[in-house]
Design goal:
Oligomer: single chain
Radius of gyration: 17 Å
Shape: globular
Order of helices and strands: HHHEEEEEHHHHHH
């Protein structure tokens, strides 16, 4: 998906599938895997240092959500918390605090996950994938899956001039060859390089978190 399509999708999610807004944002601009998105905890978010640490995943074992470490050592990484991402997480944090106050002792998010049901229960990863698929059918691009947002992120960053090593770290690949093999068809396109790439390309969605 292009930058414009990602922006359109986020605005669509905001109106029609608000539960998926933050999840879609993290998939599109951070290129996170589904398990990494659902494994994200507030303890991994440092608003002061403006960092986001990827170190946990949530996987589905039969009917139970189980926490696990990231798949590889490279999967553990500390990423820049750019401005629009901070706004997105601040909005989710505010909603969670309101939900916690509403549900009181019935609130279940004791492990501090960022993405949960209103009562704090963890999401079933397969539920998120099914709902995302339904949303993309409504949006008009049914072939795009949640994992495809990872490819879209890579494409956008390569177009911004990111080199393979930088992209490898951002996506959590074990070696650069993996990055080259999967995204080599994007390398031909080279545009401007900027220290604030993510802030720039996500500005179109900034109004969602104002």
């Amino acid at each position: 998906m292009t930058e414009d399509e990602i922006s359109e999708l986020l605005h669509f999610m905001s109106k029609n599938y608000p539960r998926l807004l933050g999840i879609t944002f993290m998939g599109a601009y951070y290129g996170l895997r589904r398990s990494e998105i659902l494994g994200l905890k507030w303890s991994a978010v440092d608003f002061d240092k403006k960092t986001l640490s990827i170190k946990h995943t949530v996987v589905r074992v039969k009917t139970v959500n189980a926490e696990d470490e990231t798949k590889t050592v490279a999967g553990k990484r500390v990423l820049n918390l750019f401005d629009t991402a901070e706004s997105c997480l601040r909005m989710i944090e505010k909603e969670q605090l309101e939900n916690k106050e509403f549900f009181q002792s019935a609130y279940q998010n004791h492990d501090g996950y960022v993405f949960t049901w209103e009562d704090g229960r963890a999401y079933d990863p397969n539920y998120i994938s099914r709902t995302f698929k339904k949303a993309m059918h409504s949006f008009g691009i049914p072939e795009i899956t949640l994992h495809n947002l990872r490819h879209s992120c890579a494409s956008m960053l390569i177009n911004k001039g990111w080199d393979i090593k930088k992209l490898q770290y951002w996506l959590g690949h074990t070696d650069a060859q993996t990055t080259l093999n999967i995204y080599s068809h994007f390398i031909r396109q080279r545009l401007n390089e900027s220290e604030n790439d993510l802030s720039q390309i996500s500005l179109a969605a900034a109004d969602l978190f104002a």
